Amino acid sequence: MTLIRSKRVYGIDVIRSIAISLVVISHCTYLLYADHNTFILSFIRTLGAVGVDLFFVLSGYLIGGLLIKNIEEGKTSFSDLVTFWKRRWLRTLPNYFLVLALNIVLLLILGDALPKNLWLYIPFLQNFINPHPNFFTEAWSLSIEEYAYLILPFLLYLSFFMFKKQHKQLFLKLTLVLIVALFAFKISYYFNANVTSYKEWSSGFRKVVLYRIDAIYFGFLLVYFIKKYETFFMQKKKLFSAIALFVFGATHLLIYYFGLYPQTHLWFYVFLYIPLVLLSCAMLFPYFINLKQNRILENVFYFISTRSYAIYLVNYSLILLSIQRYYKED
């Protein structure tokens, strides 16, 4: 146990703990204040959405780092890719399918109808191009992560096979090309969507794989540049943190001051808002990954961090919604 913990990065545990805390607190507001929508509640719920974006950047940073390590160690064959996928799936899929099964059992016990096309949850296709169904709602972000780890790594290893002498450059080039290519789908959404509310934009854009998969690739770019220019980022970590807070704060002040809503300023929410949030999250990483360890809080952050995935899977659909339903029926 001591050896395992010695290999952990304290700042990463802090980031993961902050992210899951933002998500859970946000979800709790829907239980405690389901029929209210004050400024404070809206802000807390916005931070909950940001918590998921922070998870996306963190996941991309960690998985992108593993891919770079494989490249540096010469592990660039398709068998190495399969090994990479197996390790990833063994860490995520068992818990996912267990919680999926529990959600199904809960629905049957309550006498509710199962959603149509339930089988889509098995290959994570339930929100690939359409809004996520109103069942096991946490799964929307897991679909985005799973396809992010399928698509780019496959193209990367295919490129290794085709261009054997360009391994170090291909990671960056392919990530950038894929981000640009995925932008075309956002353009299509912008010109074809008829959005009437934030909730509609959130379900039809923010939580759809095809439009959000690039969020993980922000983390890929982040780890690439931090590894390549580590000294620069470490020297400027406080400056980057200040810029991150400014960009995040200014973005949301603009939304509040000018009354920017998806139904009136869809271009802002499709092309600018999420990238600015992701950029703000990414610029905090140089500070956190070298954060000085606090012995008093270390165990707290370790406990939350190592259980964050399980907490994310069960906190809303299984726990909070069940509590909410119990009190409504009571």
From TrEMBL:
Residues 10-325 form the Acyltransferase domain. Its EC number is 2.3.-.-. The keyword Transmembrane helix applies. It is an enzyme of class 2 (transferase). Keywords: Acyltransferase, Membrane, Transferase, Transmembrane, Transmembrane helix. The chain crosses the membrane at residues 12-33, 39-68, 89-110, 147-163, 170-189, 209-227, 239-260, 266-289, 309-327. It comes from the Bacteria. GO terms for molecular function: acyltransferase activity. This is Acyltransferase. It comes from Winogradskyella marincola.
